[in-house]
Amino acid sequence: MKDATSILFGATYLRISRDKGENEDTLQNHREMMAAFCQQNGFTYDIYEEIVSGGKYELEDRPQLQRLLENIEKYQAIFTVSLDRLSRNGLVSQQIKQLCMDHEIKIITPSQTFDLSNSQEDRVLYDVSSIFATLEYEMIGRRNQYNKRQRAQRGEYVSGKPAYGYRRNPTTHKLEIHEPEAEIVRYIFKLHIEGLGTRKIADMLNSKGYRPPRCDTFLPSTVKRIITNPVYKGSLVFQNRKRIKENGKYTFKVLDTITTDHAHPAIIPPDQWDQVHQERTERGAKAIGLREKATVKAGTTMLKDLLFCGVCGRKLTIKKERNGAYTIKRCDYVSLDREEKCENHGIRLRFVEEEILRKLQAYRRQLQQELQHMQQQNTRNTHAELQQRLIHVKDQMEENKKRRADLLDLALTGTFPRDRLKIRKERLVEQEHALQEMKEAVLQEMQALEASSGMEQMKCILALLDQFEFQTAEEQNMTLKQFIRRIHYTRLLPDDIKVLSTRSRERQEYPFGYTMEYL
């Protein structure tokens, strides 16, 4: 058995949590502390660091810790500031413990070494420390939630990024109107009162060049959230929510709601907001027949109009069963060049939706990594080159300005004849115009650089995915259509499975395949 002093190579894991008010300075302090600790003991290491809550339930929510555990066979130890930095969730703590025991990996902090493979005392101490870390996390959560409730009742904004049209005052913690965006909000309500729907309003906003935060274009779902948000009439709504798992998916259950009227200045007068809200209710009542007719067959689902047969390419139908569940119907299309029907079998829609959600999480992480890589690597040299060109042009413009000033002095003193001064002045003016054109060209290249590299599109998709879990099925469907063209679904059953009853579990759970076609 190797003791701590014989360890040569390990993984340093650093984590801070915004929930506790920690920032980059805290992360830097931990980084320096662990660097000094490892240097003092002769340890070499790879470093993994992230800003995320230690109470996350899924390792997928903590990509750096997940990557460390995937590479754990490379290391002899894990170095961290304290055990609670690894996890404040009991399940994740036990996963880490088991991996360390399986691979004989020690966990080393500046004050303690945990040899989980060989010491029962260390295992007990690790378990006790993990329990206290979990309890502390839950206690902090309850205390923070209580503080938020109290502040919300005082009219303070405590719910993350303020609504479009508002900014949060850092001193009073209350919302204040941001007039450039507030004008657009008033325009949206005006159009809705005139009878326009959310899609038409979004089209008009985009045609005028208006842009929402964190995205290039207004979506109907964005307009709907603005119209239905009571924040614009001066009311503050705070929801106490709990993350729970239902039908294999995580969702947020609202425990209670606190509404504070007149909490901040209203962009829309309360009576006008109530009028718009009433009109939306009446419009919904008039359209209920049409919506119910659609629901009998397909309803509003996350994947509506996106599923296509992976065999024949035809659009697939989603059917609502009598028990309320949704099913992807079998593709029975008969092509002109053959007599038999397509053999692509259907399945319960929820199985496909769950797989798509997992795919979207992976796609989101991939986009984040690609965007970070592009920002740090791909455009670094090009941007630096353009920056140097811009500095050079500005220096030449300053030099031209000095020459023109000197020329004016020469004219006043009569040192040079007028005709020579006129020629020099004309040359300097021409040079100034040329330099101004060069400056504008460089600035245009710099503005186009980010868009041409695909960063804006990535940022837009990431902004959509950040809000995805909080959206309704209809909003999720509209979001997916912003960057997914088709989802090609395939489920071909072998003959020995076909003969089984449709109630057979083996048949029901027979796997399917799919590919996503992005825009």
From TrEMBL:
Any Pfam family the entry gives:
Zn_ribbon_recom
At the top level, the lineage of the source is: Bacteria
Report the residue ranges that make up the Recombinase domain in this protein.
163-287
Keyword rRNA processing listed: no
PROSITE patterns, sorted:
RECOMBINASE_DNA_BIND (PS51737), RECOMBINASES_3 (PS51736)
- Which terms are listed as keywords in the entry? Coiled coil
Regions annotated as coiled coil:
353-452
Protein name (record): Recombinase family protein
